[in-house]
Amino acid sequence: MYKKQFEIFDKEDSERFSDEGINLFVGSSSIRRWETITEDMSPKKVLNRGFGGSTMEQLILFHERLILRYKFKKIFIYEGDNDIGKKRNKIDIVLQQFKKLEKIIHTHQPDAQINFLSIKCSPYKKGNCKTYKIANKIFEEYCQSENYLNFIDISFGFLDENNNIKSKFFNETDGIHPSLEGYKYLTKLLKPYLYPQDF
After folding, report:
1. Can you identify the CATH homologous superfamily of domain 20-193?
2. What is the pTM of this model?
3. 14: how many CB neighbours lie within 10 A of its CB?
């Protein structure tokens, strides 16, 4: 299913010169479709290894290929909206998967900061928003347990002052993935978190 995407990653890796100082982004298609992320985050160095439709479980399955092969300063993980849906009991499952993944990452890169990006509400998955809100609170609390973990709330910016979803921040075709405006918002929010943080 992901063979073609991974082949593209392999080709890109063969052409890159150094991992030094990179910020690694992994997760589902909201990351994969961020095609301007390298330019958006410049001059900070970014590597996008998102793959469409992924879940936390699949990120664990492919962690050697997508994460451990790189030497990064910070990693940014976006998973959850493909995992949880409306089912409250799924939150605990995904949390346990994240715990497993972050331990793997920390063992591999003990000096790297691991950033969990909150799950956003979208027009297409509007019915899941209450569950996502509960999940985000649980993940935020867990990320306070270790100083190398960090929770970044991206979800609030996709809502207006009345907690209505900002439709302009989403792709009109699918109502799931960020639009150009949505990615501009993410750039402004996330860029200060990237390594190095002195510019």
Report:
1. SGNH hydrolase (3.40.50.1110)
2. 0.94
3. 7
